[in-house]
Every structure is written in structure tokens, then in C-alpha cells.
Amino acid sequence: MPETLTITDNRTGKQYEIPITHGTIRALDLRQIKVDPNEFGMMSYDPAYLNTASCQSRVTFIDGDKGILRYRGYPIEQLAEHSTFIETAYLLLNGELPSATELKSWEDELNRHSMLHENIKKFMEGFRYDAHPMGILLSTVGALSTFYPDAKQIFDKDGRAIQVARLIAKVPTIAAYAYRHSIGQPYVYPESELGLVGNFLSMLLRRVESPYKPNPILERALDVLFILHADHEQNCSTSAMRSIGSSQADPFASLAGAAAALYGPLHGGANEAVLRMLATIGTVDKVPNFVKQVKNGEGRLMGFGHRVYKAYDPRATVIKDQAYRVFEETGKNPLLDVALELERIALEDEYFVSRRLYPNVDFYSGLIYEAMGFKPSMFPVLFAIGRTPGWVSQWLEMLGDKEQKIARPRQIYLGENERDYVSLDKR
Ligand code: CMC
Predict the structure, then answer these.
(1) Which of 233, 352, 360, 361 best tests ligand 1's pocket when mutated (most atoms within 8 Å of CB)?
(2) pTM of the full predicted structure?
(3) Helix (H, G, I), strand (E, B), or coil: what is residue 15?
(4) What does R_g of the chain's alpha carbons equal in angstroms?
């Protein structure tokens, strides 16, 4: 027997049977509930989409209560241990892990598309020396739309595949150029022998060494961080990507919008805030007082808490482990002890325990990035490189979903009723 939800309307005494599918009801099924046949019908009200599924997806699964994250069914812990960012990107995009031949040809394809048109360099030279690299990244990705007018053919499957490869291959190059721009050093062209992450490090850090050899520990740590950030289902930036894409804008324009959403401090900027917080606390002996202030409502413990996870963020566990490996190479970040003490106290304290506040992905990532020599303004840019395959996979899924239309929420209008215009001399 099909599952239904019975709703009784107290205004009319009428009963409605609303079908339940996958544990949800369709908001549109509420529209039949009305007092007068000429009425618009019942809507649901859900600011910030706290309890509304906007799509059906087969990309990423999260169980926030149990601290589970899976891409296409594969647990994040296994991907972080055994996979690479390029392979994980393939998995997200195609639904299956690649064979050795498929992986090689995917790698070759990304290599082929990693260069930028020379005019992009000129475009980037227009930014001030102190421009935030995230602002440069999102504007330049938007500008790419003008270099590839064929990207407008979003229903051409083969053409779409080229744009997808272009985006995943070019975002790291733009990110590296943005960084070099900010330190006034010449741009380094991509090199195919180094692989995506090694090449990214080369474009960022290379000076006069030849050949450039990335540090394997740092290269692997960055690879793992990109895997951990690769997708996180319907978060703010992914919803932006889907929403812009639903107007049939090209993927460069859509991804520029997604990057803009990620830029905000409540999303991709939290790792930067954690580092600032740890530096403000300074030493382990100041931690108890800081926790007391947080409990008194004077600020938040940044890097703690999550809208979906009400358990330890599984990505934080992997990052913590990577942090130790990186610190063995770079020397320990002195703020690590402050972070560990904060975590120890917070995980025992009634305030945090009762609210189910645990470390999230951003609690340790900033410490690693800083130890690797990145400026805090680069942190959201690194997040964006990792998230690009996720954004694109979700965009592709949206395009193939027959139920999707242009995103267009409703509103509850609470403004003035109709009134007559008052001429200027009477106001
Ligand atoms: N420190 C202290 N108290 C907190 C914190 C925190 N970090 N997070 C939540 N709370 C308290 C909050 O004050 C509230 O308490 P009360 O019930 O007494 O009013 C309760 O916990 C519930 O908080 P909320 O704001 O309703 O929860 P939310 O789901 O709307 O917010 C959050 C989630 C991530 C915005 C929030 O936990 C937060 O601000 N954390 C710090 C910022 C941060 O680390 N963000 C990174 C998120 S992970 C990366 C990403 O996905 O972009």
C-alpha cells in the first residue's frame, strides 16, 4: 500500500491524502488545499531551505547524525586513503571509478586544457596588486565564458564534456596566476609531467629551479584536501551553481556564481577565520578563558558546528591526520597545541556536547595550508579548486534531470496593499 500523509484542513474540515516518496512529500501537492476554489492554494515556507529538498541526486550522500560522507557510494575515508583528486573528480562526474585507460586519457585531457589564453594574463594584470585572489578567481572564471562562446551549447553532450575538462583543468591555473599576481612574480606555465596537483604547486611556488620537483608529502596532503572538498551535496555554492545553471547560462558563468557564494565567510572563508581565532588566543593557557567567552555568547568557536553534521565531521578526522604528516615535513604549526586544547575542552564541555558541536572540515585545514606557506586569502581559493568537480557534476546532473526547471522560489508578500501614487509636491 502506498504511503500517504493525511492532512485535515480545520478551515473546511476536508481531508487530503498526500503521497510520500523517499520520505518526502511534494510541496506542489499542497496546492490543492484551499478554502475557495479561486485561491492560489497552500504553499510551504522554508527560509534558507532548512527542510526542503530541491533535487534528487545520486552524487553525494551525507548522514549528518552518524558523520558519514560518501561520493557515489564510496566512503570519504577510503577515497582519501587510496584515490587521487583526478580520479575522484572522474568518479563524481561519471558515477564510476575509471579503468587505468580511462584514467590515463582523463589525465591527458586535463593536461591539454590546463593552459590559459594569453589574453587572460592581460585581463588579470588589470587587478590591483592587493586584489583578493578569490575575487580574481571568480571574475576570471566568469571572463572565460567570453573565450569559449561554444560553451553556450549546454545541450551538446560532446561540447559539454570539453567545457567540463576546461573548467577542472583551468581553475588551478587561474588560482596559481592569482597568487603570483598578488606577490608580484611572473606567471609559471603549466607542465604536463607533474600531474594536476604537482603542476599546481609548480605554478605557485616555482622560481628558477629546473626541473621543479614538488615535495611529495605536501603534494599528497594537498591532493587529499582537494578530495575532501570535492563535493558536499546541496550546500550554498552548489545550490548557486544549480540555480544559475537552471537559467541555461553557460558553465563558466554558473561556476563564477558558485565561487562567489563560496567566497562568503560562512562558507569557504571559515578556515581563514579559524586561523585568526587561534592566533588571537595565542597560547594554550588562554584557551579556558576563550571557551568561557564563547559560552557567554561573546563570539563563536570557529571551525566548530555544522548545519548538517551533528557528529564529528568525517573530513576533520582525515585532515587532522594529514596535519601531523605535513608538520613532520614543515615543522609544527605553533597554533596546533592551541587547536588541540580547544578541541579537548570543547568535546568535554556541556555547552558544546548538548548542542552537538564538533570540529568541522575547517578546524584543521587552515593550519595545514599555513604550514605549507599559503596566505589566508588563498584558503578559499584552494577550497574552490577542490569543489570544482562537485559543482560541475551537480550541474551536469541538473541538466539531465527532466523534473528541473528554472529555479524560481515563491514568496509570502507582506508589503503594502494597493495604494495611489502621491505626487512629489504632496509628500
Ligand atoms: N560556537 C559556539 N556556539 C555555536 C557554534 C560555534 N561554532 N555553532 C553553533 N553554536 C550554537 C548556537 O549559538 C546555537 O546555540 P543556542 O541554541 O543556545 O542559540 C546552537 O549552537 C545552534 O546553532 P545554529 O547557529 O542554529 O546552527 P546552524 O546550523 O544554523 O549553523 C554553522 C551552522 C556552521 C553556521 C555554525 O555552527 C557556525 O557558525 N560555526 C562556526 C563557523 C564555521 O566553522 N563554519 C564552517 C562550516 S563547514 C564549511 C562549509 O561547509 O562551508
Answers:
(1) 360
(2) 0.93
(3) strand
(4) 24
